Fold each of these.
Amino acid sequence: MKTSQILGIVLIILEITSVALFLVCGQTIFSLLGTVAGEGGEIPVIVDQKTQIATLTFTFTPKNSGLIAANVIMGFGITLTDGSFSVKNQTTVSLPPGTQQSVSLNIKVPVDKLQEYADAKGTLNIFTSIRTLNDLVKLDYNSKNEGGG
Amino acid sequence: MKVRWGEAAGALLTFLVFVALPIAAQYFIPTQILEQFSATGLNVQTLAREIATIGIIISVIALAKAFVERTSITYLILNISSNIVSLAFALLVVGVGNISSLGYSSFNLKQGKVTTEILLDLRVFIYLTIGVVAVSVLQTIARFREARAEAKHTPPN
């Protein structure tokens, strides 16, 4: 067999592998993308009147309808603009193909700090990172909502 | 001059796919969607123009190859150039219009009080494309040497 023919076979294998991986990764990421948003976008707030601490809960239910496994990092937090307060909570879930998992994340915020956020002096940050192909391919989605309004 | 019509037809097909199609496609995308892309910093019209520019270069190289002897140095240079331009094309597409991003693209979208940042890491596909181009260049050189060796051993008519 000629050298050019051997290289031709290597080339075909490389090209098919590249295209197949691109399609499979794309399909996995986009199948997860629609499911990683918080349920209804609502964040329930429960205030402990005694301690004046508010608990914010964010629930995610990522579902991997893709063909390969994926890791999903999800989190949310509140940061005040003057830097006097910042809190965040995040978690990582590993999802084999065809599985889903419900995740609830809590953060505790003093009521006065929550009021400052509500007075447009802070940011609510919701972030998601979808990683697949052994974390070699990723899509990060970071949403920053200014308080107030 | 001997023309290989198969290769010339391939050049025409390349022109249709990489030049005519991107230019025509932008007119079929609704204005609203174009504006949404534009808000993230991605100008679809500029991307289509850049794809078409690279498409013209690839088509011209492909057409020139149809007129050149396979055993000539010119054919070898055209073939290697074609591989390198293909790499630039892959960088442009995977980098969503930004060649220098090398497959690591980010977009920002601000709507009222909500700012959304999207980061896409597709660098692994750039490495794979570099591998494909490298093997492709090696294959081109091997084919060229084999064609020359065959030409030497074939008695002239």
Amino acid sequence: MDEINLQDMRSGFRRLFMILPVVGLLISVPAEASLIITVGNVFSNSPSSSNTLEIDLTNTGPAPVLVGGFSFGIEVTDPHITFTSATIATALPYIFAGNSLFGPTISTLVGQTLEASDLWSGAGGATIAAGATVGLGDVSFDVSARDLPGLVIVMLSSFPFTSLSDPAGGNINVDTLAAGSITIETSAVPEPSALMLALFGLAALASIRKRFYM
Amino acid sequence: MKSSHRFGYLGGWLRHAAVVLTITALSHANAAQPVYILTDLGDLVGSATIFTSHGSAAFGVNSVGQVSGSSSTVLPSGNGGPVHAFLWTPDVMNGPTGHMIDLSPSSNGIDDGDTVRINDFGQVMFTDGSTIPDVQRAPVLWTPATRNGTTGTTAALVGTTSDGFGLNDVGQVVGRMFPGLCFAWTPSQHPNGIVGSINHHFDTARNQDIPGYGFGACAFAVAINDVGQVTGTVGVGFWGRPFIHINDPISFPNMGPLELGAIGLGDIVGPGPNADPNDQTWSGGGNAINNLGHVAGGSVFPGVGIHPFFFDGTTLRDIAPLSGAGGTALGINNVDQIVGQAVFPTPGGAFLYDQGTTHQLLTLVESASAQGWSQLATAYAINDSGQIVGQGIFNGQARAFLATPIAPPPPPTIISYQLLFGSQSFTMPGGRTNLPWTTVTGVKVKFSKPVTGNSASLTGVSVTGFSGSGTDTLNWTFNALTRATYNTKVLGTTANAILDLAGNPLGGGVDFAQTLNVLPGDVSDDANVASNDSVLVNNARSLPYNVIDDINGDGVVDMNDVNLVRGRIGTHLP
């Protein structure tokens, strides 16, 4: 297999894995859902460091929501991924921008599992308008060397790891925890046998996803 | 007062034996729990000087605590006078204080002091020595004008020489009529009428109906219960045997003549009827019978001599406190508490048999010696409230006593169970299910009274330190509790039980359980540590101090507490 073909394949992967989470998101969100916490989908090389992944909060409900604190936990099972920190430097406006109690670094546990939390500094909280999306954290991670490209699912830990609180300390129900992914790209040319295995695996995955969404 | 005829030859021997054995008693009183207070019932007004040999004695007590008894008097010359019957009425029902009246002020005195009985109406039956012409002695019945009143009239029951021994609550009397007849007297106006008649004789001929006692006679009809069952002594040759008359008992309103058919108690439990009139085995007599038909008395038990017995309707059992020592039971109430006289290692033969144990009554009295009581010689009767009457030695004189039960000292109880963390404490349960602190290192328990205990008296945690034994507050310490559920117990059982200084266990012998759900950070008490808990503690930094938010127990709610919660987000109890 030459480099061109490999590049074509990577392009196909990229399109596939950018579409799949969005499709999955649309399918999994109940019609009456109002709050969704989402893990981003990113591509990273292997090996690499200081990659970033964003955790966002979307209010899909009809009314604004006042948030006084939050926490989230994410985890991967792939040992090549190591979360190193979470900060308030999100691409979208940070939820407590200008009023973060713990920022800029809000992580409390790093590794294959990351936990982070922050509180609104002072009285009150952040208003998340209807339809708005805000950032909860910008997660940095390293990818260690691996032979094959691949997809690593980033799961959000369930309550009480991932939680929202109103300014009075009452729990706010989060309707959906949407997983994200890290697509690992490798620069080394894989052995033919390894490449065949990867192709079989991807073909099988595509087949499963296709059947699932039909 | 002369010796009672009630026990006859058997009772006289019994009493003599008991007194001798009491005098030669051994040592060391039982360390029983004080549960009674004593009242000196005194003597009749105007008779302050009493015979040193026989002052006063109480023989009956009814359900409201009225007491019947006898008191010696003194003639104007200073010589000993007749013995009078008295009625002592408490100031309040079953109270320990009251006043005494003379029921026979104009007579020459009663003839048999041991037969002054009282029923619940307040009637008093005693054997008068002079009121009936040409009769040496005969039972009379004093009836109050109103129930439990202190004014009344006295009526003679029997026109021939006789002794009255038993009186029930409807006013029936049983006793002995000379020569050799037992009788039952029943009021025609019932209950508690003052006119009646003897409607039955237990005579020699009729006693031939008693299996195995064909040659016997009713020697004494001693007691009758409220349904007309009678107990006493039936003569068998030279010896008497206890009996209970259970066939067709006298009863109201269908009162009729007693039918014979009494059976000897020995027939039920012993070796059976003994035709040998000279065989002493199972000799004895019933002295009291309750409304259950249960009998108390004294009987010779094979191999051990004369002992007090309790017949529960099936079994006649020896209730003597010591093997080989004599005694007899004289009273029984409707809950099968029995009183009488028996030999104990220390002076004072009055006993109380209760729930299988025979107690020396004096050991159940609080501060008896301090009050002037050196011994309680004989307990004659007990009512259903547990009040006991008898005769004891008060300041060196024989005096009637009333022993009134008092509530036993309450066992120690737990006033508060506090958790110690940092410099703070929290009283459990405090409306909480989960405990949010990271530094729970001790338990401090306050009791209702000083107690003793040890490090093992608290279970469920690994105790490393203990203090406070002998005070009303005990402290246990341990390493800081981590996230888990701890089922602690403050013991009221086992050898490590908490005891008060009198030896009573916690709660009367019940463990005190306290579950500790330690979930550091869960200030919201919802069994999860989430961002809302950190919000609550963060908010609490600017609020008045609340120990719930003081996660490390250092006396202030600050960012340290917020961070302690934050670091535990996501945790919950298993």
